[in-house]
Amino acid sequence: MSDSAVGTALDRAATMAEVGERGLVRHLRSRIPVGPGVLVGVGDDAAAVETGALTLVTTDVLVEGVHFRREWGPANLIGRKALTVSLSDIAAMAGIPRFAVVSLCLPPDTTVEFVDSLYDGLLERSAETGVSVVGGNVSSTPGPLTIDVTLLGQGDRLLRREGAQPGDLVVVTGMLGGAAAGLSFLLKGTRLGAEGILGEAGTWAGAAPDSLLSCLRAQLDPTPPLAFGRALAEHDIVHAAMDLSDGLSGDLLTLCHASDVSAWVDGSALPVDPCAAQLEKEGGTDAFSVALHGGEDYQLLLAVPPDALDRLKDVAVVWDLPVTAVGEFAAGPPGLSMKFGDRMKRLRPKSHEHFKDPGSRRSDPSAEA
Amino acid sequence: MSDSAVGTALDRAATMAEVGERGLVRHLRSRIPVGPGVLVGVGDDAAAVETGALTLVTTDVLVEGVHFRREWGPANLIGRKALTVSLSDIAAMAGIPRFAVVSLCLPPDTTVEFVDSLYDGLLERSAETGVSVVGGNVSSTPGPLTIDVTLLGQGDRLLRREGAQPGDLVVVTGMLGGAAAGLSFLLKGTRLGAEGILGEAGTWAGAAPDSLLSCLRAQLDPTPPLAFGRALAEHDIVHAAMDLSDGLSGDLLTLCHASDVSAWVDGSALPVDPCAAQLEKEGGTDAFSVALHGGEDYQLLLAVPPDALDRLKDVAVVWDLPVTAVGEFAAGPPGLSMKFGDRMKRLRPKSHEHFKDPGSRRSDPSAEA
Questions:
Q1: How far apart are CA A259 and CA A164, in angstroms?
Q2: Rounded CA gap, A269 and A248, in Å?
């Protein structure tokens, strides 16, 4: 957050009510660099950017009290995540992220310091991924702080949710459940401090905090495999793909609906995050359950023809990314089953829905139209 | 709103808490048509759209209680305006609007009926302007209803805010003050009913409601000159342009800053909206003041070389659009003066800033980064 000082000189303790929207906008503008392909950046009626023949676009919102709480960790991670959730969407389409616009709704008592930290993370993540912030909007709100990021990407060969065939393997990248395991501790008072160390332990009473920190980080600063989807699309290896934002069970059902197939999952094959497993021993939630149902791992869910699995693994090795076949798509109406040994049982997704459970503080990405 | 019935069968009285995000998203998806140039529309990780070499992008948010109140008028007008404010931005850059993504944050008690009406207006406005809704996001919020629209457009020759020269005329399109005059009545209890008739009169006690309805409509359903900017860009007539969203005084100062010039305005030349003037006689606010400072007319503010004024008027005749020279740009640091006869006086913008006046219910567009 050391580069927060860049920008117009504003008292960092001042609130939005004091500096006003215009003052804040001027300040933020001066912090945003002009990247390649940006003909008109922030400061005009609209931005103008160089695009290819095909442009990808996705929008995602983080709402305070629904998707994050300020006290959970450093503010810059909120800014990073606001971009990351959209990066994950573009990556799952095999696109290259290019340009972002950022809409902030801020309560009047929000400080310049907080917005600066949020932008530190957002601009840091932008720089890491070659994204240029080209515009945005600042509004006051009587409600919670809200960050809406719309991300444009470029694509050529796209990965779609439709296209999974009966007989395709259900494959996931990475390990699952870390983000949801981290969330369960955040909800019980554990806090991530500055510089990535443990802030408050909350209910955690384990020996070494490495597993805990890993899961907190997975929840607060997710790292989707941003280039893997593109490699898969170039080599025409998979039939369908989507990112795992709502949890394996919920997202797999979504993929089944998009492709008009059913699927089963082998419970014994799930790549349960080892840190989530360690936390289970130390008072955490059921690691198998969070791997199956927990959201926000932002890994990829893939439909892979069986004869392409070896090629998939060859690509994954290059990216040092675990890939695991966890089940199979089958003919039939969209629906899920779980296989335990020889038994097959109906599997109900448990992904969270905010409206149906308004009392819950469960963090979860929003539904995508 | 007769086409609200289109979509998945949902109980229109049901709340978001009852149908859930996924239920609502499925319902909205089924209502959104796939337009030209849309390769992947709603329902995947990201949309994929055909774009030219240059893409314009703008984002705008409407927050309940800040930018609108549900009781002011029919819900479909909220959806129309959510798109219109972004249409105005693309038009002010001389772009053609193409694709929109819509991010909705909804309180749990929002009904399907309300969201459907909102989408009626949004989709109606989209169809009128050749825009395809290609994606979006639905999230719950513990705060106010929020609609964030990001609009992509295509452009070639762009109009910019920078480029005004000393000696250029300050020109505005249309008549000014109608939207702000309408707002002042809405804030005092006047309501627009269904089918465009007067709902509640509030403090209005005039003879015929035509002027009132015109101003209410200007506030609730603005109609920016969407094609005029393109015509100007094609004929290379103006040096700079922006849309009038925050009010002439505030926006002119913004244009001065972007172009590094000053400007003066001739008070006697302002094209005061005749309906706003009529309302002043009937208990409304000072029509001159709302024409000078009031926001949301969504007309164009232009910097026009004096020898191009006749050509500008020739184009304006085609569009049946009033154009009025109201002042002149001058050398010097950014700042405004007002001319009354032979006297020149410093002019301070009075555009509203939400944060600085949190108690106000003044509706006004958000600051743009």
A1: 5
A2: 13
Contact indicator for B225, B173 with CB cutoff of 8 Å: yes
**φ, ψ dihedrals at B6, nearest 5°:** -65, 145
State the distance between the two ends of chain B, measured CA to CA, in whole angstroms.
Answer: 35
Q: What is the C-alpha separation between B144 and A143, in angstroms, rounded?
A: 6
Q: Which of A200-214, B23-37, B244-258 has the lowest mean pLDDT?
A: A200-214
CA-CA distance, B218 to B223, in Å (whole number)? Answer: 7
For residue A356, what are its two tokens?
A: 């149906």
Select from B44, B57, B358 the Cβ nearest to the Cβ of A108: B358
pLDDT in tens, B24-78: 998 999 999 999 999 999 999 999 999 999 999 999 999 999 999 999 999 999 9
Q: Round to whole Å and give the CA distance between B216 and B212.
A: 6
Nearest to A47 by CA among B101, B54, B250: B54
Measure in Å the smallest separation between the Cα of A197 and chain B Cα atoms.
30
Strands (E) across A247-342 are located at 262-266, 300-304, 323-330, 336-340
ipTM over 0.90: yes
Chain A residues whose CB is inside 8 A of the B18 CB are 355-356
Query: What angle, 0 to 180 degrees and rounded to 10, lies between the N-to-C axes of helices B112-129 and B16-31?
Result: 20
Nearest to B253 by CA among B173, B164, B366: B164
User: What gap in Å lies between CA A335 and CA A344, rounded to an integer?
Assistant: 13
- Domains contained in chain A, CATH given: 2-154 (3.30.1330.10), 169-346 (3.90.650.10)
Cβ pair B46:A90 closer than 8 A: yes
CA distance A86 to A252: 19
* Contact residues on chain B for A369, CB-CB shorter than 8 A: 25, 28-29, 32, 42-43, 102, 135-138
C-alpha distance from A52 to closest chain B C-alpha (Å) = 6
Nearest CB among B50, B57, B356 relative to A53 is that of: B50
pLDDT, chain A, mean? 92
* Calpha distance B194→B76 (Å, rounded): 10
Bridge pairing between strands B336-340 and B262-266 = parallel
Q: Among A45, A55, A239, A242, which would you mutate to test the B interface (most chain B Cβ atoms within 10 Å of its Cβ)?
A: A45
Residue carrying the six token digits 């030349």: B269
Contacts of B17 in chain A (CB under 8 A): 355-356, 358
pTM of the model: 0.94
Nearest CA-CA distance, residue B343 and chain A, Å: 30
The total number of residues shown for chain A amounts to: 369
Closest CA to A118 of A64, A40, A161: A64
